[in-house]
Amino acid sequence: MPPILVTATDAAHYTGRPVGTIWRWASEGRIRRYGSGKNVRYDLNELPQKTIHEATGEVILGDPPPLPEGRRAA
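User: That's the sequence. What structure does it adopt?
Assistant: Structure tokens below.
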């Protein structure tokens, strides 16, 4: 499946998490960075999508991407 590349801001909105979490996941190796500097993008296929409960409107966050073997969370 080809990557669907988005900015960190868009990735944060998609996942329901802060931009800093997207950056941390990338630094931990949970997700890949495409590009460099201000042109970094992230693949939506690697990110958990938030969902919204129909009855309550509550935002439900998906599980974070797994850490690569031998890596520790920041």
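The chain has a mean pLDDT of 95.
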